[in-house]
Design a protein that fits this description.
about 750 residues; DHBP synthase; seven-stranded mixed beta sheet; 22 helices; 31 strands; binds zinc ion; binds fe (iii) ion
């Protein structure tokens, strides 16, 4: 007989881990106890040493689907206690918090069956869940993860639920958010006049009736409120656009099932798998031509499948697809509280489908493409946050504050980086407030106390101001990281790289070390530093920031520089000649914008990067041609003038010209990277920056680089856009603190 103590770390709470342990302990004829600690679970076992060893072997192999075992620490040879049976002890609240918290999990198949089974006591109950599914991150106030520290604390269990909760053979054993129609939360519906309909069925029916009549309904979900409306009625969608002041940005949709998705979009096997995964992200799918232009002006439409029981009931058999867009106004954070929804969405929603299970933490839907069979994130949020990214060799207690657009922070502990969920553009007070609250929430949940802070070089970003203020107040070291260096480090960390790389870092804008705007960069470096090996020919942004909206300002400068004849614009000429309010930019995003305008695709952009998105959508897939390219100087600058000249003379149609332009960029990237490789001997290339949200490029550029003997890495765990930048800042900060 031996006594073995096991400390198990990882995502092991709220995922059916203790019932699993119970079964495994019984199977192996062992006895002992288990309890949740803030750092995982602690297991005390007694039995024959052969049985204990067999148990240890089986543990990782048979763990529940949602559990992630990061480490198992065995302590052998403890004095025998004489345990009988297997007991579950109350949680220990330890000082050291280390538990990983599960993201929210979509409705599981077992619960779905019960939801639709008239004989089940949770038949058509919109809040059905179990140990394998349901809300997690969004209802947690504090750790350890137990019912009183969640939004479910105010719903005492009825005797039936209590029995299931304590029955180790039951699927709901210790499922903290578990509930039923007798004891749990309920729906209600409220119309624009404030008339309220209580009761789950009645509320659902009113919401469904309204949706079928082309009305807009605010629906409270897991991490916030959605605005929903039918997709078949363009007038309804247009009304939603007007009321939400979202002129052209695409809307995501939710389809009843995969068959409905296939009617609207092409879906590969990999895409189907990720659509149906328990994370249920919005997947950007190629639209079946023609159609859905009222939802998305480009070639893709964002689609997700129902992920809560409420969604399943909302669709029933007679609704195939709904627009499901985050309820927010002019770039403020998603609305997530009942009162806030009624107040802020009045005038937008015709009705409100709400409930009394509080959302503790905002978490927007995740958004990704599927690339090489994996998620390629545009936004990593619900279903993924707050699960960390595992890293090697990173110090604890580092805080990286991110950039401005697509803001996000990152904290470190142990071998983990904890990237935040989606925060949004840090350009208004509400978003800043949410950003600060989420940093505080993460620090508390994961017991992280920042000892050093990283932020962007740009002095005007609110994230930089936050970092500076906090580092001064708390006396912490502050490291300001060049934007594109952070992108490079982020993609390195994402792929677990340590040695120097060539970074093709393309985005719209980022402050360079020389005070100018960078964004079409070829860097060589690692976490410790970088050299700017190449860039693109700078262009004057006529009118500064205005040029990111009025794309003809960029087009004018491109043509002018390239010596293409055009009608003279006296205003632009005066500005350019006096160099007044015409900062230089080497941003790749601007080059895309200018070309989109020259090709007549877009003149007035309503959101950042729109020119590039539409150019991608316009491109002909079958075009392999290229325009002449040229370089000059050091850093090795890509000269876009020959391209602009060739493009303006080309008699081909827009689709082929757009494709040729992007093919030329791929060729340019390739030659630049090859030259950098020849000079430095480095052969690993990372691709980062928002311009690589372009799937046309992502499906071609890596192959071209590989053909030249280079090894190519792209983002896999965090976004390539500025949301992923905090991870890179953190790695650079880690290096700076280490070398002191
Ligand atoms: Zn379930
Ligand atoms: Zn109950
Ligand atoms: Fe960027």
């Amino acid at each position: 007989m031996e006594h073995l103590k096991l400390e198990i770390h990882g995502i092991v709470q709220g995922v059916g881990f203790r019932p699993f342990l119970h079964r495994l302990v019984q199977e192996h004829g062992l006895s002992g106890t288990v309890c949740n600690s803030s750092s995982g679970v602690v297991l005390e076992l007694e039995g024959e040493s052969a049985a204990l060893n067999a148990f240890l072997q089986a543990l990782p192999q048979r763990a529940p689907k949602l559990a992630v075992i990061e480490s198992v620490k065995p302590h052998w040879g403890l004095p025998l206690e004489g345990y009988t049976g297997f007991r579950i002890l109350p949680s220990l609240v330890e000082r050291e918090r280390n538990t990983l918290i599960s993201p929210d999990v979509c409705l599981c198949e077992d619960c779905k069956r019960e939801l639709l089974d008239p004989k089940d006591r949770r038949y058509r109950y919109p809040f059905i869940n179990c140990t394998n599914c349901g809300p997690r991150f969004t209802i947690i106030r504090d750790v350890p993860y137990d019912r009183p520290t969640t939004s479910m604390g105010r719903f005492p269990m009825c005797p039936d639920c209590e029995r299931e909760y304590h029955d180790i053979e039951n699927r709901r054993y210790h499922a903290q958010p578990d509930c039923c129609p007798v004891c749990g939360p309920h729906l209600w519906f409220q119309d624009a006049q404030g008339r309220r309909t209580d009761g789950d069925e009645a509320a659902l029916e009113r919401a469904r009736a309204m949706l079928k009549r082309g009305k807009i309904v605010a629906v409270k979900g897991l991490g916030g409120v959605h605005l929903a409306c039918g997709i078949d009625d363009p007038a309804a969608v247009q009304r939603l656009r007007q009321r939400k002041q979202r002129d052209e940005k695409p809307f995501a949709i939710m389809c009843r099932d995969l068959d409905c998705v296939r009617k609207l979009c092409d879906v590969s096997d990999d895409e189907a798998r990720i659509l149906e995964s328990w994370q249920r992200p919005i997947v950007l799918l190629k639209k079946k031509a023609p159609g859905l232009w009222h939802l998305s002006e480009n070639g893709f439409v964002g689609v997700m499948l129902p992920y809560t029981p409420l969604h399943v009931l909302l669709f029933a058999d007679d609704i195939d697809a709904l627009v499901m867009t985050s309820a927010n106004l002019s770039d403020t954070p998603i609305v997530y509280k009942n009162g806030e929804a009624l107040e802020r969405l009045s005038g937008i929603a015709d009705g409100f489908l709400l409930h009394d299970r509080e959302i503790q933490t905002r978490c927007d839907d995740s958004l990704c493409w599927v690339l090489d069979g994996k998620e390629y994130f545009a936004r990593r949020s619900r279903g993924y946050a707050p699960y960390p990214v595992r890293l090697a060799r990173v110090q604890s207690n580092l805080l990286a504050c991110g950039a401005e657009q697509k803001a996000g922070f990152c904290l470190s502990k142990g071998d983990y980086a904890f990237p935040s969920q989606h925060i949004g553009d840090l350009k208004n007070f509400e978003t800043l407030q949410n950003y600060e609250q989420q940093i505080a929430h993460f620090e508390r949940l994961f017991d992280i106390h920042p000892a050093a802070i990283a932020c962007d070089l740009h002095p005007d970003y609110l994230s930089t101001a936050y970092a500076k203020e906090r580092s001064e107040r708390e006396g912490l070291k502050l490291v300001q990281v060049q934007h594109h260096h952070a992108h490079l480090a982020s993609c390195m960390a994402d792929n677990g790289l340590q040695e120097p790389v060539i970074g093709l870092i393309w985005d719209g804008t980022g402050l360079g070390t020389d005070g100018t705007v960078w964004g079409g960069e070829c860097l060589v470096g690692d976490y410790a530093g970088f050299e700017r090996f190449g860039s693109i020919r700078p262009m004057a942004l006529c009118g500064g920031d205005l040029a990111t909206k009025e794309l003809d300002r960029v087009a004018y400068v491109l043509r002018r520089e390239a010596g293409v004849e055009q009608e003279e614009n006296p205003l632009f000429e005066r500005m350019l000649k006096s160099a007044l309010n015409c900062p230089d930019s080497s941003g790749m995003g601007r080059l895309f914008d200018g070309v989109a305008c020259i090709l007549g695709i877009k003149t007035l952009a309503s959101y950042e990067g729109q020119g590039a998105v539409l150019l991608e959508a316009a491109a002909a897939e079958d075009e392999a041609g290229c325009y002449p390219i040229d370089f000059y100087g050091a850093p090795l600058r890509f000269d876009w003038r020959p391209i602009i000249r060739a493009l303006c003379e080309d008699k081909a149609d827009t689709a082929h010209k757009a494709a040729k332009f992007m093919n030329s960029l791929a060729r340019m990237a390739c030659e630049q990277a090859e030259a950098a490789s020849r000079k430095t001997g480095v052969t690993d290339v990372v691709l980062s920056g928002g311009s690589f949200q372009n799937l046309y490029l992502m499906r071609r550029l890596p192959a071209v680089l590989r053909a030249r003997g280079l090894t190519v890495y792209h983002h896999r765990r965090v976004s390539c856009n500025d949301e992923g930048i905090a991870l890179g800042q953190m790695m650079i900060l880690n290096e700076a603190v280490k070398s002191e």
